[in-house]
Amino acid sequence: MLLEVQDLHVEFTSRDGLVNAVNGVSYAVDAGQTLAVLGESGSGKSVTAQAIMGILDSPPGRISKGKILFRGEDLLTMGREARRRIRGEKMAMIFQDALSSLNPVLPVGYQLGEMFRVHRGASRKESKAAAIELMERVRIPAARERVGDYPHQFSGGMRQRIMIAMALALEPDLIIADEPTTALDVTVQAQVMDLLSELQQEYRMGLILITHDLGVVADAADVIAVMYAGKIVEHAPVDALYKRPAHPYTKGLLESIPRLDRKGQDLYAIKGLPPNLARIPPGCSFHPRCPIARDRCAVDVPPLYEVAPDRSSACHYWKETIGD
Ligand code: SF4
Ligand code: MG
């Protein structure tokens, strides 16, 4: 297995007290596989990614328990140098906002080339050639002429392609993309997702796709982990999850996707808001919002029940949920 997160716990201290941002998350992604991690903001999906990348520092977060295995070796206990090399060269992250991730006063070609100068000891000339090649890889038109352009001279979609190029530069084994298309309009979103999927297949990388939008990941993902209040509530192959969700939260998310055949009808939206992570409700943390909650749900924490050999759901009533 390329990457395995095992029983990860991450805590923050906030003005409200101790915040359990990640509360026992386990997931895995293999080479050539795409795992989508789906959840509302505050579900812990980004914090888990930050823990993997070692960038948990703002606000100060602490991994209080768990393992993060990269090809079987725990990143949390290995030597500093080995960890730095894996995170710097074998993993890359793509963020939502390319404008704030790129340096506004340096040409994009220079920033791409820097990867090769710093990590591969390439010369100016070599790194420029490599930058142009990367820009062509992510299909930026007229790459050779545009290698000296600055970030603001590119459209949002093109800037996101540059971020993908930057992530690909060292041919990592794993890419984590956190809401990579959220800032883009719908048609450009689809183009960027297609490009990312295509390159992921070509390079046989593992891809973790973090999103709040189930619609965006439908075609790209193999497996989906749905997160709520710092936990995984459903984990399933994408087709199975779409056809028959096994958790009321997933069901609500699916029913919230705009669909052409339901035009004009009100979208089902899950009532209420995600909980304050300093005060996670007892029992099933989803119970205040759950349309089928029973008395038991406010008391008993649901374990991850095995729904099928490759699926699980943290709902006491998953059979009822999947059944109709
Ligand atoms: Fe709803 Fe209860 Fe299932 Fe939680 S355990 S999702 S509250 S039915
Ligand atoms: Mg986020």
List the helices and strands and how they pair.
Blueprint: E1 3-14, E2 17-29, E3 34-38, H1 45-53, E4 61-70, E5 73-74, H2 80-90, E6 91-94, H3 98-101, H4 108-120, H5 124-137, H6 143-146, H7 156-168, E7 174-178, H8 186-203, E8 206-211, H9 214-217, E9 223-228, E10 231-237, H10 238-243, H11 248-255, E11 305-308, E12 311-313, H12 318-323
Parallel strand pairs: 3-8, 3-9, 6-7, 7-8
Antiparallel strand pairs: 1-2, 1-4, 4-5, 9-10, 10-12, 11-12
Protein name: Oligopeptide transport system ATP-binding protein
InterPro entries: AAA+_ATPase, ABC_Ni/Peptide_Import, ABC_transporter-like_ATP-bd, ABC_transporter-like_CS, Oligopep_ABC_C, P-loop_NTPase
Family: Belongs to the ABC transporter superfamily.
Tell me what the structure shows.
The chain is of the alpha/beta class and 324 residues long. The chain contains twelve helices and twelve strands. It has a single domain, classed as Rossmann fold (3-Layer(aba) Sandwich). The strands form two sheets. An eight-stranded mixed beta sheet has the order 6-7-8-3-9-10-12-11, with helices on both faces. A four-stranded antiparallel beta sheet has the order 2-1-4-5. The chain is globular, with a radius of gyration of 21 Å. The site of iron/sulfur cluster (SF4) has 13 residues, from loops.
